Structures are given as C-alpha cells and as structure tokens.
Amino acid sequence: MRFGGIITAMVTPFGADGRLAEGAAARMVTHLLENGSDGIVVAGTTGEGPTLDDDEKVALFELAVAESGEAPVIAGTGSNDTRHTVELTGRAAEAGVDAALVVTPYYNRPNRQGILEHMRQAAGASDLPIVLYNIPSRTAIDMPNDLLRELAEIPGVEAVKQARVENCAPIEGLDVLAGNDDMLADVLDLGGTGGIMVASHLVGREMRRMIDEPERRREIDESLRPLFDVLGVTTNPIPIKAALRMTGHEVGGLRLPMVEASEQERREIHSVLASQGLLDRVPAS
After folding, report:
1. d(CA 132, CA 82)
2. Residues annotated as part of the active site
3. pLDDT digits (tens, 9 = 90+) for 181-235
4. CATH code of the domain covering residue 172
5. Which of 99, 111, 218, 257 is the most buried (most CB within 10 A)?
6. Is residue 243 part of a domain?
7. What is the mean pLDDT of the chain?
8. In 68-175, which ranges are continuous DSSP H helix?
9. What is the domain count for the chain?
10. Which of 4, 104, 6, 88 is nearest to 43 (CA)?
C-alpha cells in the first residue's frame, strides 16, 4: 500500500458530557473527505488519543471505516508500552482499518535496539501496514535517518510521518509524509508523497492543490502560513478545535489536561480565520 496525499489527523468530537460524540465524528469524517482529504487518521495526537481509552479508540476505528468508503483510515495505536501497542494494533486490524500509526515510545525513551524491537513487534501484530511517527518535540526521542532506513527493512513498515524539520530527507523503502502543516511544501519538494495534516480540517482543498499544482506550491503555502502559524498559537489540538467551532463544526470541548484556548488566543484564531475568508463559509443558523 502506498501512503500519500492529504491525510487529515482528525479531531475527536465530544459531547457536553465529555463522552465520544459518534454522530459528530461521523459528520467530521464526511466533511473531511468531501473537502480535500484523501484519508484520515483517528485517535492520533490531534484526536486526543492519550485521553481516549481503548474501547473508545476501537469505536472510532469502526466508525471511521464505516463512514470513509474507499478512503484509507489510519488508526493511532502507538504507545510507550509494546504489549499495549501490539494489542491495540490487533484490535485496529479487526476493526477494518487500513494501517496503524505507531509513535516512537515516549517518556521511557528506549535506545536504538529497543525502538527496532518495538516496531518489529508492532508490525508483527497483524497484517496492517505500519506508518512510523517521528515527533521528537513530543517524545523527547528522535529516529535519525539511518535508523529510519533500518526500520524500513522490517516487513510491514511502509511509511513515516516525519515531524522533525531538521535534516528531513527521502528514506529508501518508506513513503515520507510531512508531519506538520508548515512542512508540506518542503516534503513534497523532496519527493515526499503527502502529509498527515491538521489545517486540512479547514483548508483541505487548498492543501491538496499543493500536490496537484506543483508550479503554484510555494504561492499556496505562503498564502496559508498565517493559518498554519495560528494553529500553533498553543498546544495542538486546542487551536484547531477552537477554529472548528468558530466555523460551525460540532466538535465539543477537550479532555484534561488539554484546556480551552484563552480569550487572547481565540481572538488571534478568529482574526486569521476572518482574513482567510473561512468565516464566510459558516452556514447560517
């Protein structure tokens, strides 16, 4: 399986009671796939995976598969516990997803051999392709390019979501996906196949044009920079959930330890949405 295009790391909608809002989640899947996304990731970082229990994750996996048609669904199954990662990856396979996103183990920070064995075990848990997730800013551990090349030799490891800006490079044997919105143009120019994005909740069609219209890639990227920047005004997914609510989407709140955007942050988000014309798209109530 090849991994590419605009894959959105979907938020997880919650109801007023803090429970998973399955109807709103189904509507979000439809919205994304009708507005530029080629596939989705569920229960990842943007989806507040750390505060979802396994049964909620599996419910999301099943819902996304049911609503996505032919579009690929990638399940966030990684953790810093190899046994848990293996178990959840197996359950994701049973739910019918197309691949598993497996993050580098965080906090316990295994050495190189530990990372290799962790990923071997994850890849051996099912027939699902594995998308590695390298995000040293959150995990405090990096998978350098030579380690990625070694990981590419593990059967079933097929792609990497690369969120390390420095020394981002093509990796033989892996589809390289941009892991941050502001990396997409650079990764595509390097020969990458696409990205796992957040801003695509709002501007998926425009981001898809960066793939389809390479001659205009830099122009489009520059036009979207204010949005990319404001979606980083505080910790993800706080800004994207605030922005989605401002643009008429029912996504609910956040689970602690994530908290709502401050008044100043909301003002900044609203200002950029207005300048980008995104508030004009809000359906009349």
Report:
1. 14
2. 133, 161
3. 999 999 999 999 999 999 999 999 999 999 999 999 999 999 999 999 999 999 9
4. 3.20.20.70
5. 99
6. no
7. 97
8. 82-95, 112-123, 136-139, 145-151
9. 1
10. 88
Enter the pTM of the model: 0.97
- Tell whether 71 is covered by a domain: yes
Cα angle 209-77-81, degrees, rounded to a multiple of 5 = 140
pLDDT at 282 over 70: no
Phi, psi at 195, each rounded to 5°: -160, 155
**Residue 1's pLDDT is what?**
80
Q: Which helix (H) or strand (E) holds 229?
A: helix 217-230
Q: Determine contact, residues 178/135, Cβ cutoff 8 Å.
A: no
Which residues is 8 bridged to in the sheet? Answer: 40, 197
DSSP-derived letter for residue 108 is S
Residue 144: give the domain boundaries: 5-213
Q: At what angle do helices 200-212 and 22-34 cross, to 10 degrees?
A: 30
First to last CA, the chain: 42
Return the sign of the alpha-carbon dihedral for residues 111, 52, 247, 204: positive
Q: How many residues can be counted in the chain?
A: 285
Q: Name which of 82, 176, 92, 161 is nearest 120 in CA terms.
A: 82
Give the integer Cα–Cα distance in Å for 68 and 77.
19
Tell me the two tokens of residue 186. Answer: 């650079």
Contact 202, 224 (CB under 8 A): no
**Tokens 């990227």 -> residue:** 221
Structure tokens that stand for 229 in this block:
């920047």
Which long-range contacts (C-beta less than 8 Å, at least 24 apart) are formed by 179-187? 179/133, 179/134, 179/135, 181/207, 181/224, 181/227, 181/228, 181/231, 182/221, 182/225, 182/228, 182/229, 184/210, 184/221, 185/210, 185/217, 185/218, 185/220, 185/221, 187/162
88: in domain: yes
Burial class (CB in 10 A: 0-12, 13-18, 19+), 108: exposed
